[in-house]
Amino acid sequence: MMWREYGSSVNVLLKSMLDQMKVEGFEFEPVSTPLYGFVGHAIPSLGQIVLPLSLRTDPQRIIKMIAFTVVDTPSAYNEILGQPALKDFRAVASTYHQKLKFPVGNGVGVLCGDQKVARRCYEGVVREEGKRTRVEVNMITK
């Protein structure tokens, strides 16, 4: 698992991941607002879908219904848990420690990220940003 802690205002799910999940019986709710800042330009969304999201396994399992904005774009990530999901789970994320902590019953559940996967995702993002074409800007000065 890999998550970002940049304060995304929505939970994002890639269409490719949704296709792999073979989700049936759920429908998209239309969303007309594009996402900005996700890959450097505006991305239209396919809609929003509400799915159950489970963190951990018993006895630390917690399940919430989470609204995801679905996008069809290449990305190093499968999903991004944004501020809405973190709030719903009352979770605290640390990208430095690759941990997500959340209250469960009388204890604290902990998800540990994978440093190698995090590095591959980061390198993928950096590689993609390097491939973007540069736009030349001509300025007129007096």
Account of the 3D structure:
The chain is of the alpha+beta class and 142 residues long. The chain has a single domain (12-131), classed as Cathepsin D, subunit A, domain 1, CATH 2.40.70. 22% of the residues lie in helices and 29% in strands. The protein has helices at residues 15-21, 83-89, 115-131; strands at 12-14, 45-55, 62-71, 79-80, 92-94, 99-104, 107-112. It has a four-stranded mixed beta sheet with strand order 2-3-1-4. A three-stranded antiparallel beta sheet has the order 5-6-7, with no helix packed on it. A hairpin with a 4-residue loop joins β5 and β6. The radius of gyration is 17 Å and the shape is globular.
